[in-house]
Write a structure and sequence with these properties.
The protein is 38% helix and 15% strand. It has 15 helices and 13 strands.
Length: 389
């Protein structure tokens, strides 16, 4: 019932913008100019909006946020996210405040409302919308309502019946060639001269969270586990995903766990997501080795556990990027999207890519050899971190 009403509302708003003088001023800027093509001399408050998509997509935006901070070191940067993104956005070292935009009206609290009222009362000089994965009407609307004289966002994706986004004063041209998602986000802010060579994710972990992660693994392992501890390595395994086409079969993953336990005396730490009890049972049945299992815990505590592990094996999900954010090496399985565009950057993060989208054709013995080489350091500095099968 809600979707048709929402669609009708969007259509009416867009028709009004297309015919209203205020909307007609928001036209495509043409070919990208050099850094400084937009007047940035008086920018002191910046609103950054990434309150849709998943937390992996958000982490891929953090290098662009870092570039904005470097370009405007004295500006006040406000970041708008949804509640499920708040755990990974909280404490971001490159922003001054994080505001939560609730998708449900019932979840708004006086403090949340007050934050947005304060945002609208304080003049914003620049609003940046990172609509680089999917298009979000609510993100556009937040940027528009901020009153910023400059509202920037990518020219695509946008509304399917318009050739530009009428909410933006600057429709940043999009390079149509395949590019890493980090570069696509950086392309948006490069238009105003913001750039960085540091492609690491912006994520602030406290010492308490690090200690908590080590202690959680020690409790599960019986006393001596965690990165740098005596004994075999701790290999974390995250086996779920909402899309079955992206899921490495748990039967084959069980074989990987058995071989790693036998070859390396590895302790296998399974990290199920909420609602994955059946997959967890299937993995236990597929593996003859004993598996440690992380109990339900908040996302930032999960991040602490992953930080304490020696390596994470996972599918193409947000947990992959969470591991990269806490500096844990990863080996991931990809089938529906090219890891050249989506995996965390750097040789510490290696990926198998089932080019024909048949993820089950990634051989378990090849996976074990790759993990062994990653752990013993024989791949140190080696290129070719994507293995195509």
């Amino acid at each position: 019932m809600w979707y048709p009403l929402e669609k009708r509302f969007k259509t009416r708003v867009l028709k009004w913008l297309a015919s209203h003088p205020l909307g007609q001023r928001r036209t495509p800027p043409g070919p990208p100019g050099p850094p400084g093509a937009v007047d940035t001399d008086d920018i002191s408050r910046i609103l950054i909006i990434r309150q849709h998509d998943q937390f992996g997509d958000f982490l891929l935006t953090t290098p662009a946020i870092r570039a904005l901070r470097a370009r405007f070191p004295d500006a006040h940067l406000s970041l708008v996210v949804r509640s499920y993104l708040y755990p990974v956005a909280r404490g971001n070292p490159d922003v001054d405040e994080v505001l939560v935009f609730h998708e449900s009206g019932w979840r708004w609290r006086p403090r949340d409302i007050g934050s947005f009222v304060g945002l609208m009362r304080n003049p914003v000089d620049l609003a940046v919308v990172f609509n680089t994965v999917s298009h979000s009407f609510s993100s556009d609307l937040i940027a528009w309502l901020s009153g910023a004289p400059v509202v920037m966002g990518p020219a695509a994706p946008t509304f399917d019946h318009l050739d530009h986004n009428p909410f933006y004063t600057v429709n940043v041209p999009v390079n149509p060639d395949p590019r890493h998602q980090i570069q696509r986000n950086l392309d948006v802010v490069r238009y105003i001269g913001a750039d960085t060579d540091d492609l690491s994710y912006g994520y602030a972990m406290s010492e308490d969270e690090r200690i908590g992660g080590r202690e959680a693994i020690e409790d599960l392992a019986g006393g001596s586990a965690g990165r740098g501890r005596p004994g075999g390595p701790v290999i974390a395994v995250h086996f779920g995903t909402g899309d079955a086409r992206k899921r490495y079969p748990v039967e084959q993953l069980g074989r990987v766990c058995d071989e790693l336990a036998g070859r390396l005396s590895a302790r296998i730490l399974a990290i199920p997501a909420p609602g994955e009890d059946e997959l967890m049972r299937a993995l236990r049945e597929a593996a003859s080795t004993s598996l440690m299992s992380v109990p339900p815990m908040p996302l930032r505590r999960v991040a602490g556990v992953i930080h304490a592990a020696d390596l994470l094996v996972c599918n193409d999900t947000g947990v992959l990027h969470l591991a990269a954010a806490v500096k844990t090496p990863t080996l991931s399985f990809h089938a529906t999207s090219d890891p050249a565009c989506w995996k965390p950057p750097g040789a510490r993060h290696r990926a198998f890519y089932a080019v024909n989208q048949r993820i089950e054709e990634i051989p378990p013995d090849r996976v074990c050899r790759e993990i062994t080489a990653m752990l013993d350091g024989s791949l140190e500095g080696e290129k070719g971190e994507i293995i195509r099968v």
